[in-house]
Amino acid sequence: MKKIKDVTAIGPASSANLGSGFDCFAIALDNLYDTVKITKSENPGITIKNLGLKTGIPNDPKKHTGGIVAINIIKEFNLQGINMIVKKGVTPGKGLGSSAATAAAVTVGMNKLFSLKLTDEEKLKFAASGEVASAGISHADNVAGSLFGGFVVINSSTCEDIVSFSPPKNLHVCIGIPKVKSVAKKTGKARKLIPSKVKFTDSVSNVSYAAMMVAGFSTGNKRLIGKSMNDNIVEPARFSTIPNYYKLKSELLKIGALGVTISGAGPSVISFLDAKTSIPKIKQCFKKQFKSAGYDSSVILTKIGKGAHVIN
Ligand code: HSE
Asked: Is the Cβ–Cβ distance between 305 and 149 less than 8 Å?
């Protein structure tokens, strides 16, 4: 087998939680991704060059999501050094799994470059280790979405079980991104808003929503998927960080969105639509409702996509 010197991998953006699946549900987003080129180096250690969006992400591997993943893989398998070029396509701080996109691309890239034959659980563990750089803890939902694609369910306590479902046909994803001031370590701060104790009745409703979301994806029932995008625990704790959130949600549902919730830790808001929903009306609604709270916004239309992969 010919030895390869470099690989290029892409890692898609993702949207985590989808309502009640805090830390255990995510989807990969189509057509929005980071690209990472990894080259074997004669010298030990890691160098990183950041290209693409101007993100202010540091080049220091110890402070860089992809760098941390690479450090951990190199250490575990006693590998030689690498040079990495990271082209950011996913803007950080928007609740779209920007750091996970890089972490997933680095994981699958190194797996291929060094023929590591990592299991899915090992890939998840290494990619999640990179989340420490942005979230302060290694939550694994975004990296699961980015790594495996589709709608992914993981056991957040053990990270040992990973199940990915293909999306039903014509399930569109429309995401509104308000131009709020970016907050350093936003995910870590948003996690501090979540109560440490919850009401039993709220936990019962959340279990029902989560179970029905999985049932919706496993039977391809778009209406059930949308109806299950609800959450009585995290959404009420975080809604105030998103401009006009509940009004926006109710207006989007009125004009035909199947379901609406906060994307990851926000501030983006994700909606699922089907072929009957008017996409222009949904886009206009996002813009109008964010604007009425004083914020410009951008809106992206996408689908649930495939996971991170090597492109050459
Ligand atoms: N489950 C994580 C959170 C996702 O909501 O804190 C962050 O994108």
From this structure: yes
Give the CATH number for residue 220. 3.30.70.890
* Measured distance CA(287)–CA(279) in Å, rounded: 13
Please tell me the pTM assigned to this model. 0.94
Instruction: For 24-64, write each residue's pLDDT tens digit.
Output: 999 999 999 999 999 999 889 999 999 877 777 888 999 99
* Known active-site residue 187: yes
> Do 156 and 192 reside in the same domain of the chain?
no
Nearest to 234 by CA among 245, 244, 223, 224: 245
pLDDT tens by residue, 162-186: 999 999 999 999 999 999 998 888 8
Structure confidence at residue 187 (pLDDT) = 86
- The model's confidence at residue 153, banded by pLDDT at 50, 70 and 90, is very high
Domain of residue 134, CATH code = 3.30.230.10
Q: Which domain holds residue 266?
A: 172-303
Residues with CB under 6 A from ligand 1: 16-17, 22-23, 95, 139, 141-142, 187, 190-191, 264-265
- Burial code (b: 16+ CB inside 10 Å, e: under 16) for 80-95 equals eebbbbbbbbbbbbbb
Number of structural domains, the chain? 2
64 and 209 together in one domain: no
Query: From the candidates 131, 235, 241, 302, which is the catalytic residue?
Result: 131
Among residues of the chain, what percentage have pLDDT more than 70? Answer: 97
> Is 229 found in the same domain as 161?
no
Nearest to 225 by CA among 140, 298, 153, 139: 153
Task: Specify whether 262 is located in the same domain as 192.
Answer: yes
Do 33 and 160 fall into the same domain? yes
Candidates 150, 146, 139, 143; CA nearest to 190 is 139
If you average pLDDT over every residue of the chain, what do you get?
A: 94
For the chain, how big is the Rg over CA atoms in Å? Answer: 19
